[in-house]
Write a structure and sequence with these properties.
Mean pLDDT: 96
Distance between the termini: 16 Å
Shape: globular
Radius of gyration: 20 Å
Order of helices and strands: EEEHEEEHHEHEHHHEHEHEEHEHEHHEHE
Strand content: 15-25%
CATH topology of the largest domain: Quinone Oxidoreductase, Chain A, domain 1
Low-confidence stretches: none
Number of helices: 14
Helix content: 25-40%
CATH architecture of the largest domain: Alpha-Beta Complex
Largest sheet: 7 strands, mixed
Structural class: alpha/beta
Length: about 350
């Protein structure tokens, strides 16, 4: 079968690989129909994050079930399903706590479209995807839902949601500051959209990129166009802050802009692979400020943003920069994007 791989900076290629077999009696085989990019895809392909190829691409999407094992109870061939980026069993201690990104039944890095285990599981930009523990891993696409709106639920939409929703519930009417800066930048924009949808007070999006600023403005956010000094010197305070900047220095700046008993979430910590990021610990302590980061527990979080999309309360469409055909995926991926969606004609 055909599988799209990252080879090196701005170099992606289709390769012939063996067609996967059913991964056990509780697994499934799925044909990807709509695949959206993760922010890490853009960072890696453009050379911002070092990664040795070849690596299969794609780990957000909607697919059609082709085959299920005899122990699968809730799915059948022909069902349309939302596919998550991380492999999770659903029954280990961590999964039982809802911490599915840290499932202990598989190696820590087990995921689609992600090194070093991607060669085992592949990516979603291929003809057939093996899915273990299918009843846990796959979420039925609600009848009538546009798969273009649902494909990002495999990773980046829940990532933006978790940066806002739990903290808004604790802090009704909270003021929110999201700082972007690193392309592609979809997670920070989703966070802005969820902040507005969930009834935040003042919502501010800061970035130097005019395209992303315009998207944030379309969600109803106030926008700040950043200068070379970024947030340095700004003395305003916010109940909830989100680091979507990919800039280590911004983490400390945001923490100092987080108000008393506030919370800051970093959604771009994968970019900080090069070294530790300093934080103003004593300032955080005396102001009761919390800092959150980590892989999003997609399987546990997904139902809530899915419900918001289904109800019309939240629309991810403004973040989508382009929808392309399966055949055009390789050419489209090497160009800059905010959120690229690849769709099969069949």
């Amino acid at each position: 079968m055909q599988q799209l791989n990252y080879i090196g900076t701005r170099d992606v290629q289709w390769r012939d690989v063996p067609t996967p077999v059913l991964p056990g009696s509780d697994g499934a085989l799925v044909k990807p129909m709509v695949v959206s990019t993760c922010d890490m895809d853009g960072a890696v392909i453009q050379g911002a994050v070092p990664l040795k190829g070849p690596v299969p691409l794609g780990h957000e999407g909607v697919g059609e079930v082709l085959e299920v094992g005899p122990d699968v109870k809730g799915l059948k061939p022909g069902d349309r399903v939302i596919m998550p980026w991380k492999i999770a069993c659903g029954h280990c201690t961590h999964c039982g706590r809802g911490h599915t990104a840290q499932c202990i039944s598989v190696p820590r890095e087990a995921a689609y479209g992600w090194a070093p285990t991607a060669p085992e599981w592949g990516g979603f930009l291929q003809d057939v995807v093996p899915v273990p523990w299918a009843d846990t891993m796959l979420t039925a696409l609600p009848a009538g839902m546009d798969p273009l709106k649902a494909s990002g639920l495999g990773d980046n939409i829940p990532d933006g949601y978790r940066a806002i929703a739990p903290h808004i519930i604790e802090r009704r009417g909270a003021d929110v500051l999201v700082c972007g800066g690193t392309a592609p930048g979809s997670i920070g924009l989703f966070a802005v959209g969820f902040a507005k949808a969930l009834g935040a007070g003042r919502v501010v999006y800061a970035d130097h990129d005019t395209t992303r600023l315009a998207i944030a403005e379309s969600y109803g956010a106030e926008t700040w166009e950043l200068s070379k000094s970024w947030l340095h010197g700004i003395r305003e305070r916010f109940d909830i802050t989100v680091d979507a900047s990919g800039r280590p220095e911004t983490v400390a700046e945001l923490l100092r802009m987080t108000g008393r008993a506030g919370v800051c979430t970093s959604t771009t910590a994968a970019i900080y692979i090069g070294g530790d990021v300093p934080v103003p610990m004593f300032h955080m302590y005396r102001n009761s400020i919390s800092l959150h980061t980590g892989w999003v527990h997609t399987h546990s979080v997904l139902p809530e943003p899915l419900a918001l999309i289904q109800s019309g309360a939240f629309d991810p469409t403004p973040v989508t920069s382009r929808v392309v055909s399966w055949e055009d995926a390789a050419d489209a991926l090497i160009e800059p994007f905010t959120k690229l969606i690849v769709s099969r004609a069949d």
